Amino acid sequence: MPSGAPVALSAGAALSAAFVAGTWAVRGRSSSVFAPSIHRATISRKALALTFDDGPSPATPLLLDILARHSIPATFFQVGENAEAYPALARRVAEGGHEIGNHSSTHPNFAFTRPSFALEEFSRAQTVLADITGKTPIWLRAPYGVRWFGFREAQRKLNLTGVMWSVIGRDWRLPASAVTARILNHVRQGDIICLHDGRGTLKNPDVEATLEAVRRIIPELLGRGYHFETVSDLLMPEELTPPNHQLNGDDLLTPRVLRIIAETQRKDPAQVTIDSSFEELGIDSMDGVNIIFALENEFDINVPDEEVKNILSVRDMVEGVRNLVQTKDTVAGDAPPAN
User: Which of 53, 54, 65, 171 is catalytic?
Assistant: First the structure.
């Protein structure tokens, strides 16, 4: 072996080690080199956090419907530009009882950007998300998981804490079966699971693999005894954690009503919001009857004829259903136990 070979090998090994260390500092899920970051919770209860990046998108209502069927809360790391493109969807996520996180304004790769860029991106997104959803994020997730110089200062000034993940589905490139297997084979209590209801700033992304994976993993994990929490609840000290980690039915009633209206009218779910008028949605008296019939089946309620004439908007419909559901639950709670 030439005399210079060991030196060359040593230099190569050093470069390789430096590359690995640098990559971990930038993208390592447990790295706090560039800014404080959390990737899982150390807890004794069987709890998990589902998180979704890159939304909102036209597919977000489909995901909300899946979560609503199981009364499961999630944390949505929204992109400011997408929230501006779909403000009604961004609001619907928040109105459904889910947590909103900051995923930047334009979904850039922060590697090799100037230090001030992080503050500019997350500051813009923070303002947009708070204005649109009415909720000010306290969590930040870097696009692609890439942290860089300037993150520490941005998080300090905006009062944001970085959140990575402990399990990631790679749902942007894998089929639903593989996404499902990745999660079910690796999940353990305290995990933060990362999936996507969008693809960067694409306006009509294909997230069917994500939707199908979520349809599969939720029943399986519930069957294993897990329950789901927002990131905030998952990371809360256990002595302060609320005893009921699932969303109650009232939190999820609005998106269920909106879904039924959209399905009955054959509308894009993104078009139906709580502030929509019947005129905007093309709902006539016969359509109203069909929607009410569908709502009665969905919620096991009976809408009195005298109440129908008072339903003049989507908001009226939501409030009417809520009152009837609450009345039904109260009556059921007062009923004597069966022998």
Answer: 53
